[in-house]
Write a structure and sequence with these properties.
five-stranded antiparallel beta sheet; globular
């Protein structure tokens, strides 16, 4: 891995790795937790990788990889309402390139990776704990998928760190979602420069600075509205409605050992 790419060979994967793969034209990345033996646990919206529950899904789904009509001999067939799912690495990648998400990166490296959803300042927990969280959420659910507040990257980051946003109505910990929000925020905050200077380079530099600062401040490793929650406690709160992750609690998948 390096500054420009987190691309890895599948032979280097270890149980507990947070992996992802970019979809069509790098529109978005799909994230999951590798649990070993060529298997991945990941979070979807009713069996789909991406969705908002609105008419925008017609555009978003068009960027998802086409599914083979031939059933995979390894993966368990998915019911339409499943959220957290279990699949082989090949089905997860769907022909895409394999990348590993980086943890505990320096602020300089974090800012240098302009595209969000590839790394975080937060520190990962040990692999056995990560795999335990992923398997527990497979059997108990992770709430309702929300593209901005509770998506596949949020799921993987929680499995890796145990950190979750405690204030409702706030954006999740997803770097992809933060990047989407940070762009317009940087534009709005930098518009006041029009009253100070007409230099396009100064405006661009300030906009870039605001964008980077917003991303750093919103990273799960920097936020002050997150707390570490044990996965058993997390799913118990979810089941009784004490915490809402995107919406109603959806059905869960069969358990695995």
């Amino acid at each position: 891995m390096g500054l420009l790419s987190n691309r890895v060979d599948r032979n280097s994967l270890k149980a507990g790795d947070h992996i992802y793969t970019w979809r069509s034209a790098y529109i978005y990345a799909h994230h999951g937790i590798y649990i070993g033996d060529n298997k991945v646990i990941h979070f979807t919206r009713r069996g789909r990788e991406l969705g908002t529950g609105t008419v925008l899904d017609l555009l978003l789904v068009s960027s998802c990889p086409a599914r083979s009509q031939v059933p995979c001999s390894t993966c368990t067939p998915l019911e339409p309402d499943y959220g957290v799912v279990y699949s082989c690495l090949d089905c997860f990648l769907a022909g895409g390139i394999l990348y590993r998400f980086e943890y505990a990166v320096s602020p300089a490296l974090f800012v240098a990776k302009v595209r969000g959803g590839t790394c975080t300042l937060a520190v990962s927990d040990p692999p056995d704990i990560v795999v335990h969280r992923a398997k527990h959420l497979l059997n108990n659910g992770f709430g309702c998928y929300d593209v901005f507040k509770n998506n596949c990257e949020d799921f993987a980051i929680y499995c890796k760190t145990g950190l979750t946003v405690v204030q409702q109505g706030k954006a999740g910990q997803s770097g992809q979602a933060v990047s989407i929000v940070s762009g317009p925020v940087a534009t709005v905050l930098s518009t006041s420069l029009r009253l100070v200077t007409t230099n396009v380079y100064v405006k661009a530099a300030v906009s870039a600075g605001v964008y980077c600062a917003t991303r750093v401040a919103a990273d799960i490793g920097m936020r002050n509205d997150v707390m570490k929650v044990e996965v058993e406690d997390f799913t118990q709160r979810l089941a009784i409605g004490a915490v809402q992750m995107g919406g109603p609690h959806p059905p869960v998948t069969p358990s695995i050992s």
